[in-house]
Amino acid sequence: MPFVKRSTLFTLAVLSGVGLLAFAGFVYSGAYDIGADNAHTRPVLSLLQTLRERSIAVRAQQLMLPTMNDPARIRQGAGNYDAMCTGCHLAPGIAETELSKGLYPAPPNLTRESVPPREAFWAIKHGIKASGMPAWGKSMNDESIWNMVAFLQQLPKLDAGGYRDMVAHSEGHSHGGGEAAHHHLDNDERESDEHEMEEAHGGQHAHQMPASASTVPEHGKPGHHH
């Protein structure tokens, strides 16, 4: 009987060693296509999704949830979301962006789905490896992250007009991490600023656009053409 047990353990050890060597050989061979334009196989995708979901859920359940329905909290979160998140997670009235279409796994469209508050906080603060989701907690304080989480609870309920109005009444990009403020100037403010700049430079524009820039989007940057 002891001989049978030792034999079984030896066989299992050999099989495990062979399996590890085979896996290492597969990884080193480069046979697996890691390109973002080629989806994972179903088993790999399922494994990664389960790993991500369980990792976040286990850690997020320990968080203390603050009030999520404070209007001031929601407004402040709207400004940061607009400045930091729309390129990947979109906003009401915004079509898919080059970034959102190019990332894999595709970032969730947060205008159509809500994320549980604790899990949203953890993902925003710590980021997610190999997903394109940064760890905003390196530059953003916890209070501002919770404000953004509060806004995310409202985002799927907003239309384009409601979203723009909430962002307009927010503090813009402001979370105490040394960021530069982002403010959307209306036409009168833009004209006033341009006039002041012309006077300061003897009637000349401080920055002149090259003639090849045929389009100028809302924020005054040269058009992005492919």
TrEMBL record:
Region called Disordered, residue ranges: 167-226
Gene Ontology terms for molecular function: electron transfer activity; heme binding; metal ion binding
Basic and acidic residues bias: start-end ranges: 167-187
SUPFAM superfamilies on file: Cytochrome c (SSF46626)
Comp. bias intervals (Acidic residues): 188-197
Domain Cytochrome c: 72-156
InterPro entries: Cyt_c-like_dom (IPR009056), Cyt_c-like_dom_sf (IPR036909)
Keywords associated with the record: Heme, Iron, Metal-binding
Name the UniProt record assigns to this protein: Cytochrome c family protein
Organism of provenance: Lysobacter dokdonensis DS-58
